[in-house]
Amino acid sequence: MSIIRQDDLIDSVADALQYISYYHPTDFIQAVNQAYEHELNPAAKDAMAQILINSRMSAMGHRPICQDTGIVTVFVKVGMNVQWDADMSLDDMINEGVRRAYLHPDNVLRASILADPAGGRKNTKDNTPAVIHYSMVPGDKVEVDIAAKGGGSENKTKMVMLNPSDSIVDWIVKTVPTMGAGWCPPGMLGIGIGGTAEKAAVLAKEALMEPIDIHELRKRGPSNRVEELRLEIMDAVNKLGIGAQGLGGLTTVLDVKIKDYPTHAASLPICMIPNCAATRHTHFVLDGSGPSLQKAPSIDEWPDITWEVGESVKRVDLNTVTKEDVNSWQPGDTLLLNGKMLTGRDAAHKKIVDMLNKGESLPVDLAGRFIYYVGPVDPVRDEVVGPAGPTTATRMDKFTRQVLEQTGLMGMIGKAERGPTAIEAIKDNKSVYLMAVGGAAYLVAQAIKHAEVVAFPELGMEAIYEFDVVDMPVTVAVDSKGESVHNTGPQIWKAKIEEQKLELI
After folding, report:
1. Which domains does the chain have, with CATH numbers?
2. Which residues of the chain have pLDDT under 50?
3. Which of 17, 80, 299, 401 is most buried (most C-beta within 10 Å)?
4. Catalytic annotation, residues
């Protein structure tokens, strides 16, 4: 029999969440590096280089890999012989650990959790509560798997109730392209099969806690149908040519994890949940001997990759950029942005549109400006701003035409693709959409030399900031003629993979 103290669990949860905010699992880094070395598309290779550089910088600087520090998900296995030395509930102990982690003064993490989701959507300020799953198991230990899941990838979750005779692989091959690039590939797919609808979803999320081992499986060969499915799905998805950040390329997924459960004879529930390029999870065990704290990996586990400014890269002065400059940019061009840009995401766009509809003056002039879709982490120590990577641009699509036409906004910066309505608006207004790499938030923040809130301070991290940037790297994703690299890139690379029989990882 083990006696688990309240503070030991709280300290272990807080330590684990701080740890995964800045340390990728080393198996993930090795998998991304292998994909980077294998990649043939320069744009996708460049994106993975930024992800790897950002990861190394975060590990050294102990600051978040991604500005979206996630919703906390916890799987707890409680031994039936465990006793507790505690006056708090198990839920409350875990949430106290979350609270301490997210408010840690040396590494403040972004609070993204909103209470009353269908109503007031008020930020809880400390990222509580976590989503917690329990199971009672034999033994006298408490085993905890803990993750911080970003909203961009979580929003791409797909579920279906197939007929028992339907092909799981066919459904996945049809569905993955509909997810776009907002889940920041390359990453992992967690797939839950069986049980009921809600059981399949829990299985898919739990599967993402497992280590990357697809290459070991490929070498030894599958021993059951689930392992066969993992290989079939991995190959089928990578043959789609979606590639890193949706730019087209050889690697879209690094591994496919599957958990299954017995189901009704008339049912085949399937849930697919992607993990992004900011994959964050870890594991610890409490046995009554004290807190279980994470051991820092050696920085030698990270490849020492540098990002070079090539001759084709264009430096852009945002303070003097003109419509003629914008019209000269081509899809896939790499730009280094300098000067002042504004920020604004969902809540700010809604406020802007509401004010426009009422005929009110905006608190900041958007004419001729660029707006960056970001909600940064609060700064610590001498930082100008905390990690400040892009959020998914498609969420702003419904606002795009009105904002462009009524404010004179010149350009937008975000991650992932734009939908047809936004692309048409960009084309009609001779605007442009630039893509920053999702999962490279700490790297992006190094380009920001000054930051101040200029509108809607009540929105917290969703306020409108003005950033002064130096050499912030972006890619022209939708040009002023409406051509999107997220449409053309995967098409080109899918054809190349098929026609040239290119070797996938």
Report:
1. 151-277 (3.30.1330), 314-489 (3.20.130.10)
2. none
3. 17
4. 349
